Every structure is written in C-alpha cells, then in structure tokens.
Amino acid sequence: MRAYSASSEEAVRARDLLKDWAGENFLTAAQYQRMEQETVCDSRRTNIFLRLVLFLFTLIIVGAAVALFFVVFLSNPGQRTTGVFLLIFAVLSYAGAELAVSQARLYRYGIEEALAACSVGFLCVGTQGAFFSGHRFAQDGAEFLVPAAGAISSLWIWHRFGLPYASLAAMIFVLWLPGYWTSSHPAQHSIVAAFYAVGLSIVAAVRPRHRSTYLNDRYSIAEALLWLGIYVAINLQLSSVNLLGQWWGGPRTTAAEFTRPFYWATWVLIWCLPPIVLARGVRRKDRFVIAAGAIAAILTLVTNKSYLDWQRHTWDPVLLGALLIGVALFIRRWLAAGPGQIRHGFTAQRLSGKDKQWMSVGSTALGLISPNVITPSPQAGSPDVRFGGGDSGGGGATSDF
Question: Per-residue pLDDT averaged across 11-20, rounded?
C-alpha cells in the first residue's frame, strides 16, 4: 500500500541518522564509512534547495502543458468538458508520480511531489467543473464532495508517499466542509474540531505499533498538526472568518457573534488544551507534539486580551518576549543542573544537527523573501537643499579657497 518498501524507508532513515551523528562528531570517519556501507539505499535523493526548485519547475511545466493542450485542441470548451479533461490530467499526473517513484526511484526529489500535488488540484477543479457547474448535482447539496475528494486524495498521498504536508492539505480541505452543511458559525467550528479529534484518535491508536520504526516521525508530525488544528478550530480569535480583516486593523471577534456559553467555553478550552498537549509530548518525549503545545500556549497568551476585549498596548509583545526568554533560560538552567546535564531523559545540549539545517533553510528563505530589510534604501537628495558653492563656509573659507 506504500510507494516505498519498508527496507528502503529504514535505509533512508539510518543514513540520515548516520550523517547527523557524524556531523556532531559522535562517529569517527572510519565508523561512518563502515556503517554507511551497511545501509545501502537505491533511492535517488537531493538537498532541500534543489528539491524546492524542482518542485516549483515541475508545477510550472505541468501547468503550462495543460494550458497549451486547451489552447491547441480546445478553443472554447464548456465547463463540463474542461472538468472532464482536468480529471484525465489528474489521473495522468498521479500516474506520473507513481512512475517517478517506481521506475526512477525518486525519494523526496520534488518532481514526484509536484506531480502528486497537481493530481489533487486537477481532481478538485475537475470535479467541480464536471459535476457541479450548472448541473442538478449542485442543487442537491452534494457540492461538499469537492473538498471531500481533496481531503481523501490528500490522505491517500500522505499514506502512499509519506509526504508530511499532505496531511496538512487534508486538514485544510476539511475546513471547507461545514460551510456546505450549516451556516451556524458555532456548528462549523465544532464540526471541524470533531473531524480533527477523530483523526487524532486514529493516529493515537495506530502510532504505538510503530514506535521504533520510520513511521513514528510521520505519525508524530500528523499528531502535532491535528493538535494545532483542534486548537485553531476552538480559538475563535484565530479561526474567525474575518481573521485577515482583524490583522489589518478591522473589528475583532467578540462574544456577540457567538452564544455566550460557546464563546466562554472556547476561552476555557484554549487555556486547558496547551498543558494537555505539552504533557503528552513530554511523556512520550515527542519534540513535534511538544512544539505544538508550546505554539498553542503562545497563541493563548497572544489572543487572551482579544478574547476578553481588553485594550492592547504597544509594549505587549515586549512583555511576551521577556516572558518567553525567562522561561527558556529557566528550563535550560534546570536541565543543565541535573546529573550529567540530563533530567528525565531531556537535556539542554544539542544532540542533532537538524536544528542547524532548519535554521540555515529558514535564514535563506527569509533572505529571499525580504532582501531589502537589512540594507537600507539610498536616500534621494532634496532638490530644495542648496549649499551656495561654499560661500558661507566657516573659518573664513570661501569657494575660491
């Protein structure tokens, strides 16, 4: 049922661990070479930067090929015809992803990922055009099948190819489902949270069987995303339909938009959920779940004043930053004071080089997004400023000096 065999996945995981340990000087060069020969992997891989480039280029090529097909062979197609052909292209894109994995042995190479993403996009747009654009199915209230198809296909790609962000795509598609069933905002929030809770219970039930396998990290990321999804669904200040408007200075979500019991129940939940998530992550020593709990706790502090409709001040971020710095220093010193700088299996020392890699990727991405943030733009001279040729220079100097 999975595109890659368990032996290939374990070999990739072992090689990543070996490279990580060697980078932190936990292994000598001789040990690394000997152990690397024992973990032979036939999958073709690349670095994160080339992976992103290949992903983007494949998206552009597939999109251009589909557009060229419609321009050359279909001059003025109807919506239903366009939808049918997009469904065909969805099948072809998925077949291309399967061939890239089975024949070319690509593993997180960007190309097969882009083909899989295109298949999901073509499936949703094609389903909308072929069955729900001006047809009786749209009047029967069955249009929710479009995001449902996107969620199901994303889950299949997550299971088949092991792409972590495919589970996030499925969660995003689920956000569209309640809008087709009810117009009540409390009901929509509750339905989304219920979907995520069901997914979380399934992951929590399946995950213990794969605790020591390569699937553990995959389920860990999915669980962390589901915890965050539940939190965002119940935090009305984050999941409001007018969230973008709030960011740009618009009106905030208030208790008047919801029933008072529902509004204040969600306020209680956003304070109760982060400790639960943190406790589960600490108990299982799961860094992704711990990170999800920490993010939820920070978001609770950020949105608390909005929930209570208190006045926000310009120094609030400063106080939050000081609090976070203090907590981080306290935890670090508490762990360092333990025997061997270890307490209950946790340490403040870096044991992996992955953090450095992600920081490098993040700093590179930040530099690409905002290249002019650090370097100030040159200031244009004012045409109204005239120095008079130095005739008014100090110390008796003139323009002829």
Answer: 82
Q: How far apart are CA 292 and CA 220, in angstroms?
A: 11
CA distances 200 to 146, 277, 330, Å, are 23, 12, 32
Strand partners, 346: 343
More confident residue, 8 or 241: 8
Token code pair at residue 182? 């009810």
Q: State both tokens at 20.
A: 């990580």
Residue 231 has pLDDT above 60, yes or no: yes
Contact 48, 361 (CB under 8 A): yes
Q: How far apart are the first and last CA of the chain?
A: 88
Q: How confident is the model at residue 246 (pLDDT cuts 50, 70, 90)?
A: very low
- pLDDT bucket at 114, cuts 50 / 70 / 90: very high
What pLDDT sits at residue 16? 81
CB atoms within 10 A of CB 285: 11
CA–CA dist 33, 189 (Å, integer): 53
pTM exceeds 0.70, yes or no:
yes
With helix as H, strand as E and coil as C, how does the chain read? Answer: CCCCCHHHHHHHHHHHHHHHHHHCCCCCHHHHHHHHHCCCCCCECCCHHHHHHHHHHHHHHHHHHHHHHHHHHCCCCCHHHHHHHHHHHHHHHHHHHHHHHHCCCECCCCHHHHHHHHHHHHHHHHHHHHHCCCCHHHHCCCCCHHHHHHHHHHHHHHHHHCCHHHHHHHHHHHCCCHHHCCCCHHHHHHHHHHHHHHHHHHHHHHHHHHCCCCHHHHHHHHHHHHHHHHHHHHCCCCCCCCHHHHHCCCCCCCHHHCCHHHHHHHHHHHHHHHHHHHHHHHHHCCHHHHHHHHHHHHHHHHHHHHHHCCCCCCCHHHHHHHHHHHHHHHHHHHHHCCHHHEECCEECCCCCCHHHHHHHHHHHHHHHHCCCCCCCCCCCCCCCCCCHHHCCCCCCCCCCC
pLDDT digits (tens, 9 = 90+) for 73-84: 887 888 889 999
Name the amino acid, one letter, at 80: R
Q: Which of 98, 90, 99, 103 is nearest to 62 (CA)?
A: 90
Total number of residues shown for the chain: 401
Q: In this structure, which amino acid lies at residue 254?
A: T
